[in-house]
Amino acid sequence: MSTQTLTDDRYHTIGYIDTAADGTQTGRNAHYHIVGYYDPRSNVTTDARYHKVGTGNLLAALISRC
């Protein structure tokens, strides 16, 4: 699994995106709470409760600074 750290313009960490070996991604906020999931096979992003947010990878949009 690889982890990408997302930062703001002042280099403060605002979240993380973890990528599993099968390509699925999990978005987490700065406190490491899950905010959503992305499945590249279906090309769908869901929130933490598995409600569809939209098509494509929208994890960065779900991650906001707390």
Description:
The chain is mainly β and 66 residues long. It has 1 helix and 6 strands. The protein has one helix at residues 59-62; strands at residues 2-7, 13-19, 25-29, 34-39, 44-47, 52-55. The protein has a 6-stranded antiparallel sheet with strand order 1-2-3-4-5-6. The longest helix has 4 residues, at 59-62. The protein is globular and about 35 Å long.
Mean pLDDT: 94
Q: Regarding quaternary structure, how should these chains be classified?
A: single chain
Radius of gyration: 11 Å
Residue runs with pLDDT of under 50 for 5 or more positions:
none
Structural class: mainly beta
Order of helices and strands: EEEEEEH
Largest sheet: 6 strands, antiparallel
Count of helical stretches: 1
Strand content: over 45%
With strands numbered from the N-terminus, the spatial order across the biggest sheet is 1-2-3-4-5-6
- Cα-to-Cα separation, first versus last residue: 25 Å
Q: Helicity range of the residues? A: under 10%
Based on CA inertia axes, which overall geometry fits?
globular
How many DSSP-defined strands? Answer: 6
Number of domains: 1
